[in-house]
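Hi all, long-time lurker, first post. I run a small reading group and we've been trying to get comfortable going from sequence to structure in the token notation. Rather than ask abstract questions, I figured I'd post a concrete chain and ask someone more experienced to write out its structure so we can walk through it together at our next meeting. Sequence below, copied exactly:
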Amino acid sequence: MGGIPLGRLAGFPVSANWSVFVLLWLFAWSLASTLPDTTPGYSAVGYWFAGTAGALVLLGCLLVHELAHAVFARRGGVRVIDVTLWLFGGVTRLAGEAATPRTAFRIAISGPVTSLLLGMFFAAATYGLRGTGGPHIVVGVGWWLAAVNVVLGCFNLLPGAPLDGGRVLKAFLWRRYRDPVRASLGAARAGRMLAFILIAFGLVEFLAGAIVGGVWLAFIGWFIFAASREQEVQSLTRQAIADVRVRDVMTANPDTAPLDITLDAFIQHYLLGHRHSAYPVVDRRGDVIGLITLAQLRRIVPGRRAVTTVGEAAIPMCHVAVASPADNLADVLARLRISCDNRVLVFEGGRLVGIVTSSDLHRLIDVYQLLSPPSHDMSSATARSEPA
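-- Answer (accepted) --
Happy to help. Here is the structure in token form:
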């Protein structure tokens, strides 16, 4: 989801994925194509200028929608990683899950409510502008912005993951059954049913001659199906490893590398002949100050490796995921997904005692899923009180 950094808004890092340019063109084309029917009398250049301006404002509305999620997540004690605009609007990445159904509901509902309020704002502003004799083309753009924001707000409330309505449904099921895993499975399966409906409607529209609208609707349905299936797999994974702790999967007492040797020396004396591809980096007192990986080494040009030290190339600890041996493994999965190196360092009493890699987790998950095959009946999930 990475892309073009746009700075920080309300304290959150904001960026735009390259696919947002496709979304911008679609919005601009849609508006520029409809304006001649509602506000005739302008040139083609004028319509495209108005369409582009309206599309940019709508992207700003999408950003406000995502920032609402981020603000309510921060208020609910959930760390926000970043906010990214992309082809399907936007996504707010969170470092964890809400602790209660009430907090989860507030985070989920904040986005659609914001879009609906924006729609009401543009409708009121446009009504007032029309009453004062404002330019017809500006009035047309205003009504379009009002309508699209209302449609986006209502569409996001559809009850199926990964839409906001699916998260609202998850919060409701969580409160009802007191089981976040069962709630997540219910929202994911509702999302899958919604995806089939959207794909079917898209095919009907395509056969009826609405080629662009039909293909787009079917494509959205396919995306929702893939995302809901992914959420279902993650929920079943959490169910399978619910009682596993970090100590059960970590590699104990991992090898470390000193910070003051060069990268060439590190490659010769540590990487060659050893199976490890990442090493915690320690200072002269033995304290861990970072992590050096093959990915970090590749970023240093070969000619600089003889004069660059391991400490200079290492990932700082502030960007490395950490855990304790007693942590629930299911909770560590979320940290692993957002870590920059697919590894989690394990500390106990301030001392490094282990390391967990994605390959370790994948193997363990496969084994536990073989031992406990997931049921397709949602009622088979046992009640647990910890958050998903």
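A couple of things your group might point at:
The first strand starts at residue 4 and ends at 9.
The mean pLDDT is 87.
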